[in-house]
Amino acid sequence: MKDIHLSERLCAILNFIPDSCVLADIGSDHALLACKAVEDGRTIRAIAGEVRVGPFRRSEEGVRNRGLDEMVCVRLGDGLSVLAPGEADCIVIAGMGGELITDILQRGRDRLNEQTTLILQPNIREPLCRSWLAAHHWAVLDEHIVEEGSHFYEIILAKYAVTGCTELSESECIMGPVLSKKQSPVFIKKWLKREKKLHQILSAIDHSVQKPSPSILMKKRQCVKEMKMIQNCLRRYFKTIKEKQ
Ligand code: SAM
Question: Residue 47 in contact with residue 22, Cβ under 8 Å?
């Protein structure tokens, strides 16, 4: 059997999985993450949850072919309903939109406890995940960002905060509290690209011959606000660039 090759995104998720945990990968599709985590000895047992029959059967076959039936359990079902309360120490929900991820968390709240580690990787609408975590007393402990093709993927590691405040500012929700501090080259690239896009939108609005409608003016205000947020977050980067000139 060939070695499992994970994409950079899935490798980054794997790196966040705590050693010796019982892992649940919800929406596992191919169950490659669960198989790799077990094969690498990172987890003692894994549950791969999948709502669609096709991927569920493919996952079952993959697990069987790898001889991992004893350690990777593939389950058909919706979200966290495939788990008994507290059954998994680490729950990964990756490769879906932020809305679906928060919906899965919200409906499966009784499957989580104070020991659970959550690893979330929304493909879009990342702020929804961070807002949900903050509102339900989960603290964002670490974050990572990877670039694959033309897309940037953010990975969020969170633990339930027994004490302390989990509140996030608007910019922390949008840009990530840890990512904003780390300011990795990929993070900077993502937000410079966004800033450039906002410049283009504003320039198109300002150069339009038509009188702007109230909705266009509203869009303009939002763009200006977002641009200020980016420039404020990246001011250290901009300062270094200026000093070099
Ligand atoms: N997690 C993998 C990854 O990151 O590469 C696969 C991502 S794939 C794009 C999303 C998977 O989530 C699909 O296989 C889909 O069937 C599954 N899914 C969507 N909604 C789900 C739900 N409510 N419960 C379990 N799985 C779900």
Answer: yes
- H-helix segments, 73-184: 98-107, 126-135, 170-175, 177-182
**What pLDDT, in 10s, does the model give residues 45-90?**
999 999 999 999 999 999 999 999 999 999 999 999 999 998 999 9
> DSSP string spanning 169-184?
-HHHHHH-HHHHHH--
Q: Is the CB of 26 under 6 A from ligand 1?
A: yes
The CATH H-level superfamily of 8-164 is: Vaccinia Virus protein VP39 (3.40.50.150)
Cross-strand partners of 118: 91, 158
Q: What is the pTM of this model?
A: 0.95
Is the torsion defined by CA of 97, 151, 149, 145 positive or negative?
negative
- Evaluate: CB of 49 within 6 angstroms of ligand 1: yes
Is ligand 1 within 6 A of the CB of residue 112?
no
Domain boundaries, the chain: 8-164, 185-244
